[in-house]
Amino acid sequence: MLEIKGLCLKAGSFQVNQISFSVPTGSCHALVGATGSGKTLVLETVAGLRKAQAGSINWLNRDITVLPPEQRELAYVPQDLALFPHMNVRENIEYGLRMRKHHAPDKRSDVEKLTHYLGIGHLLDRSIQNLSGGERQRTALARALVPGNKLLLLDEPFSALHEAMRKELWLLLKTLQQQYGITILIVTHDMEEAFLLADSVTFIARGVVVQSSEKQQVYSCPANVETAKFFGVQNLFPAEVVAHKSDSLALFCPGLGIVLQANNSDWTRLLPKTSVTVGIRAENIIVETDVTMDNARELPALNQAACTVKQLYQKRKGLILLLQPDNGDGKCLLEAEIATDSLGQVSELSVGQKVVISLPAEQFLLFAE
Ligand SMILES: Nc1ncnc2c1ncn2[C@@H]1O[C@H](COP(=O)(O)OP(=O)(O)OP(=O)(O)O)[C@@H](O)[C@H]1O
């Protein structure tokens, strides 16, 4: 287990405060957050390139907080990869071994095996300067893994690569992780990357941890509006509690111009007149194209609103609609997504078209201010 407890450090006027999270051995943990939130500083401190002011870092029950980088038994791949341009691929990879004082001849077969596996076995004599972005990434991974490191720290490793290459490397990394039993701490901006690679996630903002949990928990119950935005909750709008029952709340949303019913017994402590932010993901909004509010048939939930299509565009997973509620305050633009495989169930859509949306009562996220 990698265990980080109460980590504090300073870089110029920026302060990282009381960072704590743990990564079970053999799992992958993603450190996410907006640009400049302190992710790289945390990674550099775990790698031993920065000094912690307070707190501790334990790896496999060994306190490594003050050890020099080469004694930490981990590999760090920085954003710029730090490959040596004057060396070829093999020399770069074997440099990792020399740093560890491994006898290179013993490890030669590991170099061959791993580079073959990473698909760069044929490039060992190639100069670093003549590699593509993906080949450089693979070389940096090989250099990190060949000495037998079981903890891999990766700082946005795939951000410079195009989508297809990124996906190929995600799968490769996942397989390597399982095959070699590696523990990974990865900094990323890419939610898809975080959700595909990681088992758990820590969200950092302004140098402090906002939420640290299993990835499913961060996705389904983000801690606050900032985390919700970061984890792709496209629709966040203000509302006021108007009434509450034992297992549901009635909320007035000026943006939609309707009273919504939201089902969640956790929220019933919220008193009438409390201001909240309501969130719902685009894919959870049901769009009905062949009904109007006058002839709206029975839909799965109460929360219906007439809307006008303001914009629509195709995305990888479906059709995105930007919808303006007809009876709202004019400030709310909702994003709805119709999955590609459901497109056959709605008639052709166009800008200016009237639709009816339904917001399932159990799909709301609620954030009290
Ligand atoms: N040596 C330094 N001196 C002064 N300030 C620094 C130093 N290193 C980092 N910072 C500042 O600390 C803050 C956090 O930096 P850090 O690199 O950890 O951010 P990050 O979350 O990794 O961002 P990004 O996602 O853009 O890489 C930033 O405001 C940065 O400018």
UniProtKB/TrEMBL annotation:
The record's listing under InterPro entries reads:
AAA+_ATPase, ABC_SmlMolc_Importer, ABC_transporter-like_ATP-bd, Mo/tungstate-bd_C_term_dom, P-loop_NTPase
The keyword Transport is annotated on this UniProt entry: yes
Task: Please indicate which superkingdom the organism of origin belongs to.
Answer: Bacteria
Which SUPFAM superfamilies does the protein's record reference? MOP-like (SSF50331), P-loop containing nucleoside triphosphate hydrolases (SSF52540)
Question: Which N-terminal residues, if any, form the signal peptide?
Answer: none
Supply the alphabetized keyword list. ATP-binding, Nucleotide-binding, Transport
What is this protein's name? Sulfate/thiosulfate import ATP-binding protein CysA
